[in-house]
What does this fold into?
Amino acid sequence: MADRILIVEDEQKLARFVELELTHEGYEVDKAFDGRSGFEMAQSGKYDLILLDVMLPGMSGMELLRRLRKSSDIPVIMVTARDAVMDKVTGLDMGADDYITKPFEIEEVLARIRAALRKRACVALKEEKQVCGKLVLDTARRSVEYDGNAIVLTNREFELLQVLMENRSIVLSRDKLLERVWGYDYMGETNVVDVYIRYLRAKIDDMFGVKLIHTVRGVGYVLRESQ
Ligand code: CA
It folds into this structure.
């Protein structure tokens, strides 16, 4: 599937020119000509990268980025005026992945886009999937599968399994699990961990006839492939 790029740029001729070049390279492209509609579109989650002009009517590119970063880590390349050093620094501080100064060569834009998308691909592979044998937990899709079979978990079960998988082969105490999954200020029964471990075992170990979730007597629990 083609990567989708959103161009937020109020100079419509420039936006159109970049759109044509990106389309020619095989990207799918949408445009927004002001900050507010750009923000609306950026939030939709259907883009892989945003090319974001700093000086925009409605809402500045900086403000758009600041708001967007509360809920999204989509790659953003800022487009700043030449010599606007403050813009570059502020943009990077606020979570932009890269910046380009105007006027730019289109080849430079294409190279920066390719680099940002490549970086995203590595991060996605590293962070979005946890694997232990045939058990796969996908944090982006919030799904769990064993050998291709979907496992339906409640939110709490998912979070507990996620912590176990992120720390696979490491023994985690009940207190640690309680803190990570239920939070510091949890006031309920401490055996809630044991209860949820039972739920997970029923849905994974018992269901598929494997032994992944192990009790370490007097210490806690660990997720590993055998023993
Ligand atoms: Ca502008």
